[in-house]
Amino acid sequence: MLIGVASAAVNTQYFGKAPNLLVSISRQEPDPVEPGKEIEVSFKIDNNGTTANNVLFEILPEYPFSLLEGEPKTRSLGTMGTSQSSKQAAIERFRLKVAQDAGDGYHKVKVRYKDSSYDTWTTLENFKIKVQTYDALLGVDRFFSVPVVTAPGDKAKLSIDMKNYASSPLKNIKVLLDLTEAEEGSMPFAPIGSSNEKVFNYLESNFVLPVSFDLLVDSGAVSKAYKIPLKFGYSDYLNKNYSKSSFVTLIVGDKPDLGVTLERTEVYTAETPGNVILRLVNKGNPDIKFLNVKVLQSENVKVVGSDESYIGKLDSDDFSTAEFKLFLKGENSIKIPVQVSYKDTNNNDYRENREVELKLYSNGEAKALGVKSGNGYTWAVILLIIIGVGYYYYRKRNKNNKK
Q: Which residues are paired to 252 by β-bridges?
């Protein structure tokens, strides 16, 4: 018996007058097949020799292939005639399941056959079925930065975990952090120590590839979350090339520095109600929004009217004022408790309690300093009394002179 192989076909030649069977794969559907999917493989069996009687044909599936439940592996072809007879060829279809973890590439499948003239089987092994993931997928599994929020002028390490979701290895992997594109203006980042592109040779199926970039944040960067384009290319096991893109985020921000001081006051002595105006200064880099100021009442501080003032947005290096009417008790100085609440540009919430000191004077000290005048009403009364007394004595004197 002589076995010869040509293309996807196997030819079996018996010496002398004997059947001459030629087996080939005529069709696979789908082609290629994805891991975890089903496939129908059609084998064509030709007889180029003498008549073959009671031919049996059988598939011998091995990993990553298996027969579907209820699918017979052995088929009876009956009698296969010569080219001059009515039946010289047969088509047999087998439905197979591909293992979920099958790698991309060509996988072999075995078949065998025999006829009633011989007791032994003839096994053929050179049939290949193409398995390939529909789209060899390399993607971002997760990313993070250290620190989580980077202040302008500081350094950050951006770490990206790239995962091979395909069922076979990937190769020639290039990862580019595109720092040239931005939604508004240019990206305020510069790579440190290496370029913004990384190259890797190989990545196994379901493995994670750690990629990191050291970046310097521009000192004038606006505090916000920046979406940075991430572009990457790679090849699969069958040398098919892929090019994809995604986004990673780096948060730039600094803790706000809000100052609360006394702007001016109409209150200089205790138990004298008046307006007190507070100055709020944004001394930090990020803008402040939804700013609200509230005076917390205490034993020595009472608010006449509203105890809150809404400022709203306060830009960096800018100020605003909030006015309250207060009634104060105590001596020397009073610490007015103030609560400020606001958000930064990254929507982080802040609530802080402050104290604003206001100095109080005695009535004499206030008059001496010129911040308080005398009681004008009292002097008016005294003046009226003096005028009244003078007028009384004037009238009385005129009456006496007439007598």
A: 150, 224
